[in-house]
Structures are given as structure tokens and as C-alpha cells.
């Protein structure tokens, strides 16, 4: 369920501060969001895959913590990121 390299590079270019920025909160949130979307689609067809469901819940919690940090430190970037990824602002 890992992201392919091309998709990961596209997300880094779109949300990163430069081409090699993979550690900023914006990029991490974008990468986690794409993994969450893929896992959600997987779980729609494989309803009894509880191991993947647990992994999904962990990813959602990690993204939530990153979003809380980004909202606290850089409000403009937070708003731009959630709008680009179409994530609800429930933090």
C-alpha cells in the first residue's frame, strides 16, 4: 500500500518548500492523506480487513497531530493545505 515514486514526487513538488523537502508538515500531511484515501478505498471492498483498519486509524491520528501542529505554528499554510487537500477543519 506504499505510494509509488511518481505520486510521491508530485506531492512533494506541490506542497514542499523546495524540490527535496519531504519533512515539512505540509508534505507529511499530503502524503498521509493520499495513503488514507487509498486505504479507505481498500476497506470499502475488503470490509473484514481489520489489520488495515487499525493502520488507517493510526494514520488518521498521525495526520491529525500534524494538522494541529501546523495550525498552531503557521495558520496561513494550514488553511492553504486543507483547502488543497479538501480536508475538513475540525481541529
In words, what does this structure look like?
The protein has 91 residues and is mostly helical. The protein is built from four helices and no strands. The protein has a single domain, classed as S15/NS1, RNA-binding (Helix Hairpins). Helices cover 74% and strands 0% of the residues. Helix 1 crosses helix 2 and helix 3 packs antiparallel against helix 4.
Keywords for this entry:
mainly alpha, globular, Helix Hairpins, 91 residues
Task: Present the secondary structure layout.
Blueprint: H1 5-15, H2 25-45, H3 50-73, H4 75-85
Short description:
This protein is 74% helix and 0% strand.
The CATH class name reads Mainly Alpha
Radius of gyration: 14 Å
Euclidean distance between termini CA atoms: 27 Å
What is the residue-averaged pLDDT?
A: 94
Number of domains: 1
Tally of separate helices: 4
Please identify the structural class as seen in this structure.
Answer: mainly alpha
Amino acid at each position: 500500500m506504499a505510494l509509488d515514486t511518481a505520486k510521491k514526487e508530485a506531492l512533494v513538488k506541490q506542497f514542499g518548500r523546495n524540490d527535496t523537502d519531504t519533512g515539512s508538515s505540509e508534505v507529511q500531511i499530503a502524503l498521509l492523506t493520499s495513503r488514507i484515501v487509498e486505504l479507505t478505498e481498500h476497506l470499502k471492498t475488503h470490509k473484514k480487513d481489520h489489520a488495515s483498519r487499525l493502520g488507517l486509524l493510526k494514520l488518521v491520528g498521525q495526520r491529525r497531530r500534524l494538522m494541529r501542529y501546523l495550525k498552531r505554528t503557521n495558520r496561513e499554510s494550514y488553511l492553504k493545505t486543507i483547502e488543497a487537500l479538501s480536508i475538513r477543519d475540525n481541529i
